[in-house]
Design brief:
Elements: H1 4-16, E1 21-25, H2 31-37, E2 46-51, H3 55-62, H4 66-72, H5 77-91, E3 95-101, E4 115-122, E5 125-132, H6 137-163
Parallel strand pairs: 1-2, 1-3
Antiparallel strand pairs: 3-4, 4-5
């Protein structure tokens, strides 16, 4: 569970590790960015975010390949990685976090409600993580946001360890 204290520690650790962060959000609609910026001092690490709800925005602003979106759909691990990398490029950040998935109430592009991918990019390399959340639309979005922040904490912790 995210707390004010844990978020403040995340921001402090990112600043100490000289990490800059950007977000690319579809499913969460800006919730990850909003969670980060509620912390005083977050401007020391958070560069900005792009809410890319439509595929055309994923293409234009994040550089996600149109053929990738047409072939695989927006809810895909490769798309999550491309979004995270695109956030880094667009904002000049070392770390990018992306969210894409189906919040419901209906399945989308053959994916069930609650099927989510979170992409994490760090210094030009990206990895995606697959989740199957339960609950209503809001619960799925909150769970995805919490997991995205948790993944961000892991990246920041690992980068801080490398810096020592």
């Amino acid at each position: 569970m995210l707390t004010e204290t844990s978020l403040a520690a995340l921001v402090e650790s990112a600043v100490a590790a000289d990490l800059t962060v950007a977000t690319a959000e579809s499913l969460t609609g800006g919730m990850v960015a909003a969670t980060l910026v509620q912390v005083p001092g977050s401007s020391g690490m958070f560069q900005g975010g792009i809410i890319a709800y439509q595929n055309t925005i994923k293409e234009r602003l994040l550089g996600v390949s149109a053929s990738l979106l047409e072939t695989l759909g927006a809810v895909d691990p490769q798309v999550a990685c491309a979004m995270a990398l695109g956030a880094c490029t667009a904002a000049g950040a070392r770390v990018g976090i992306s969210t894409t998935g189906v919040a419901g109430p209906e399945p989308h592009q053959g994916k069930d409600v609650g099927h989510v991918y979170i992409g994490v990019a760090f210094d030009g390399e990206a990895k995606s993580y697959e989740y199957h959340f339960a609950g209503d639309r809001e619960m799925i979005r909150v769970q995805a946001t919490q997991e995205a922040i948790s993944l961000l904490e892991q990246v920041i912790h690992a980068a801080g360890e490398q810096k020592l």
